[in-house]
Amino acid sequence: MAHAAIELEHVHVTYRTRDGLVEALRDISLRVEPNAFLTVVGPSGCGKTTLLKIVSGVLRPSRGRILLFGEDLSQARLEGKFGFVFQRPLLLPWRTAMGNVALTSEIVAKQLSREQRLERAREWLGLTGLQGFEDKYPHELSGGMQQRVALSRALSFHPQILLMDEPFAALDEITREAMQGELLKIWARIRSTILFVTHSIAEALLLSDRVVILSHRPGEILETLDIPFERPRAELLRGQKEFVELVEHVRSKLRGPEGQLG
Amino acid sequence: MLRAVAEGFHALAQRRTLGSLLVFLAFFLAWEGAVRLFHIRDFLLPTPSAIAVTMYQKRLYLLEHSVPTLVAIVLGFVLAAVTGFVIAVGVAYSRWLNEISYPFLVTSQVIPKIALAPLFLVWFGFGITPKVVIAALIAFFPIVINTAKGLTSVEPELVQFMRSLGATWHEIFFKISLPWALPYIFAAFKISMTLAVVGAVVGEFVGSDKGLGYLVMYHHITFETRLMFAGLMALSIIGVALFLLVVLAEHYLLSWQASIETPPETM
């Protein structure tokens, strides 16, 4: 069997805080196949961000094992393997859109000349629909555009794995839906592995191949769903009966037997 | 470079609107008028016009004493900027350094540095050194505090991302942290430049035979109020010019910030 891009085996995470020990994640096991799109959905404080930190090696799990393409995380070379997109764009305000995108290749692709890096940045900005905005500074761009720059920055060095931490949560609904469509289009072209985290059920179902439902603290996997809808997926999907039913199913799962949302 | 400086002047000119200039002018007119109207005696408060005439007549004398003061201010500021920056980097990146240096930093601010001036005279002698040291000592604190604050305000997620790319400490510092802190640093530079002027003059009060501080003290003793004012004016001109120089440098280096509404808070 081919190796999964990301594999978590019985991962537990316990934090030590001022109030004592906090169990963030409990017995998480999941597989993300290469070039697949997996989304973790759950309420705020379910440890979604912790999960991303574990996968990217920022945090060590208290127990359990993480494999990246079959290699133990602690032994793997992680440099340049991950692209990150956060909830906030976190752009450098003194760099233009193009300069911000070029930042990552300045670290990862030092063999390229400055011109080549900027050329590459320009291409990525074009791919994310920002043609003509290359020389704009972040404060001259809208929230959605800033997030497009952040996406271009994360993709421009061809990371094997893209980690996305609620990237569209801070956007207004219309922009968010447009961005979701863009992301699917881009992903269809680049086909890298995406681990996406969100608290929006519809977003998870619309984007992913597979959805992992995480419970409120401690984060535990409630269910793993394979999403049946054919690609390319259109906006129309949102209105379809199967989609609406699946949203309702996930919602009831998250609500739990006690009828509470975390 | 020249264009940026020109743009800087332009921006300054726009900000210093005609209105505030008129108010400034009106202040001197009121002063002139009041002195004449109430027949205030010259040794108490000379008119601005009389001061201007004195400044012109004694221009070489004033220039001769401006140079050592200017040198002391600039050297004091540079010393403060360099040591302040180095300490700030240490404080920002080392918790241990942060903890041990904090009491020293605060104490160094609580002690009235003016009271240290006679001591520095004993230590460093009767030259430029005590002036520079006092100027630096007064000026370095805002630089430490602000630079450290700027460096530690960098988004941790961004730093994580850079680390995950394999960026070295050096790369993160120069590509992210330092430019991130630059607005904070310049906010401190502006305060520190004015403080350096105070420091240099205090040094000249205590023990010096040249400089504008000395000149003001000397003519205080000889009861020549006009010359005291002439010295003060020269000091103000130097202080304002140096401040504007910092503002121009800021404008040149942080041109991206010009159109953003909210600059970072100071101190």
* Structure classification of chain B: mainly alpha
- The count of DSSP E runs of length 2 or more, i.e. the number of strands of chain A, is 10
Shape descriptor of chain B: globular
Strand order of the largest sheet of chain A: 6-7-8-3-9-10
Structural account:
The complex is a heterodimer of chains A (262) and B (267). Chain A has seven helices and ten strands. Chain A has helices at 48-55, 97-108, 114-127, 143-155, 173-190, 201-207, 241-255, and strands spanning 6-17, 20-32, 37-41, 63-68, 71-72, 82-85, 161-165, 193-198, 210-214, 221-226. In chain A, the strands form two sheets. In chain A, strands 6-7-8-3-9-10 form a six-stranded mixed sheet, with helices on both faces. Chain A has a four-stranded antiparallel sheet with strand order 2-1-4-5, with helices on one face. In chain A, helix 2 (97-108) crosses helix 3 (114-127) and helix 3 (114-127) crosses helix 4. Chain A starts with 5 loop residues before the first strand and ends in a 7-residue tail after the last helix. Chain B is mainly alpha-helical. Chain B has one domain: MetI-like fold. In chain B, 81% of the residues lie in helices and 0% in strands. Chain B contains eleven helices and no strands. The longest helix of chain B has 38 residues, at 169-206. In chain B, 35% of the residues are buried. The chains are: A alpha/beta (262), B mainly alpha (267). Chain A binds chain B through residues 56-58, 78-82, 84, 86, 88, 90, 92-95, 103-104, 106-108, 137, 139-140, 157, and chain B through 155, 157-158, 160-162, 164-167, 171, 175-176, 179-180, 182, 254, 256-257, 259-260.
